[in-house]
Amino acid sequence: xxxxxxxxxxxxxxxxxxxxxxxxxxxxxxxxxxxxxxxxxxxxxxxxxxxxxxxxxxxxxxxxxxxxxxxxxxxxxxxxxxxxxxxxxxxxxxxxxxxxxxxxxxxxxxxxxxxxxxxxxxxxxxxxxxxxxxxxxxxxxxxxxxxx
Length: 148
What we know:
Layout: H1 3-19, H2 23-27, E1 30-37, E2 42-45, H3 48-64, E3 69-79, E4 84-95, E5 98-99, E6 104-113, E7 116-124
Parallel strand pairs: 1-7
Antiparallel strand pairs: 1-2, 3-4, 4-5, 4-6, 6-7
C-alpha cells in the first residue's frame, strides 16, 4: 500500500471518530506522548486525560461552528522505514457547503503499532499556543515555519 493511501485512510478514520464523537476510536489511533508543533508553540500531550480533554473541547468547538463535515486531503506522503509515514494534508471544516473556518495545513507522522496506525507528531500552520487546540488562531500561511 502507498504511503499516501495509508495516511488518507488514517485521516478519514480519525476524522470520522471525531465527527461521531467516539473517544475510544480516537484514543486507539494516537500514540502517547503526542508531540504537536504550531507556529506559536511546541506542545506535548502525555496522558489519556489530556488527550480526552482535548478531544472533548475540539468536538465542542467544531459543533459551536456548525461543522458537519471534516475534510482532510493528503497532498504528499512518504514512508520513513517500513512502519512510519510522514505526510502533509489540508483540513477543511465544512458547515454544509461553506467553510466554517479557514483552511489550514498540517504535517503528520504516524507509526504502525501492533498493526494499527497511530499519530506520533503533528505540525500545523495554526498559531495555537496551548492544548486543547480550539482553532481560534488560524494562520493565513500556506506552509510551515522551520521545524525544531
